[in-house]
Design goal:
Protein name: Putative prefoldin subunit 4
Helix content: over 70%
CATH architecture: Orthogonal Bundle
Keywords: Chaperone, Coiled coil
Number of domains: 1
GO biological process, one term: protein folding
Shape: rod-shaped
GO cellular component, one term: prefoldin complex
CATH class: Mainly Alpha
GO molecular function, one term: unfolded protein binding
Strand order of the largest sheet: 1-2
Length: 97
């Protein structure tokens, strides 16, 4: 469940970064407000574009890593299910509802 929520949050974050990038493209300001932690700083547009691209790359890499980890865990679960069903037959139920 933890990976699912992390994956979901990263996906939302990636979408938010994409939205921010699109808004920046539409903006004609040379200096824009950029949130750093809990405060907004006035920064040159070019620097914000660079930061947004870096943040999008990092979020994509993290999301990709989580997807790979998820696939690995699902494969391990499938293998364990085979072993447990082989040992206990129909006396256990490992399927999700």
């Amino acid at each position: 469940m933890h990976n699912y929520s992390c994956s979901f949050l990263l996906q939302e974050s990636n979408e938010s970064l994409e939205d921010a990038s699109n808004e920046l493209i539409l903006s004609d300001e040379d200096v824009v407000r950029f949130q750093i932690g809990e405060v907004f700083a006035h920064m040159p547009r070019e620097e914000v574009e660079i930061r947004l691209e870096k943040m999008k790359e990092d979020a994509s890499k993290d999301l990709e890593r989580l997807e790979e980890e998820k696939e690995s865990v699902l494969a391990q679960m499938a293998e364990l299910k085979k072993i447990l069903y082989g040992k206990f037959k129909d006396s256990i139920n490992l399927e999700e509802d």
